[in-house]
Amino acid sequence: MRKIDYIVIHHSATLDGETFSWEAIRKYHIETLKWRDIGYNFGIEKYQGKTFILAGRDISEIPAHTSGLNTNSIGICVVGNYDNEILDLDKKQTLLFLLKTLMYLLDLSPERVIGHREYYVLTQLNLADKRYLSENIKTCPGVNFPMHEIRETLSKKFKVKNSNLFKVLQSFDREFLAKRKVFWV
């Protein structure tokens, strides 16, 4: 089993409609991007009023979701465009369930759960490879996605003392959203 240090949360930047988008994402990754499978390890999507956790690449396999962080992370895509939408309660609770399960199984702390846009913070702290850093900071998983709230909830659930990295990520996320100097994914 490969070493996993981070769980990276993404959004699909598409509407979560009446059909499963997960297979369309898989098809896009395989046929257009020429990857061997969908880039994420898990997906969360609502279909006919129910929220599902969907399987992507096996966690033993290296995913393709965040250049420079793929070898030591798991990627979760929450279907929807959270630059324009608010994460609904069902999806949030499902995401928290999946995160708690993965954190327990992989012995990860809440600071190891990041939004795609927070990759920038890791590079600035020399915790990730800067070669893959884009000029523009992405908004993914969306400017309306509550990363700070997700980490706070996880922190309370696991009763952990917040580290410096946790505080830096929380501060970055709040400042980033306050400035709204964002670039669409």
List keywords for this structure.
Lysozyme-like; alpha/beta; disordered C terminus; 185 residues; 5-stranded mixed β-sheet
Describe this protein's structure.
The chain has 185 residues and is α/β, with parallel strands linked by helices. The protein contains five helices and five strands; from the N terminus they run E-H-E-E-E-H-E-H-H-H. It has helices at 22-32, 89-106, 119-124, 147-158, 164-179; strands at residues 6-11, 42-47, 50-55, 73-78, 113-115. Helix 2 crosses helix 4. It is globular, with a radius of gyration of 15 Å. The chain starts with 5 loop residues before the first strand and ends in a 6-residue tail after the last helix. Mean pLDDT is 82; it is low at 180-185.
Tally of helical runs? 5
How does the major sheet shape up?
Answer: 5 strands, mixed
Mean pLDDT: 82
Task: Show unreliable segments.
Answer: 180-185
Shape: globular
Walk me through the topology:
Elements: E1 6-11, H1 22-32, E2 42-47, E3 50-55, E4 73-78, H2 89-106, E5 113-115, H3 119-124, H4 147-158, H5 164-179
Parallel strand pairs: 1-4, 1-5, 2-4
Antiparallel strand pairs: 2-3
Helix pairs in contact: 2-4
Summarize the structure.
With 185 residues, the protein is α/β, with parallel strands linked by helices. The chain has five helices and five strands, in the order E-H-E-E-E-H-E-H-H-H.
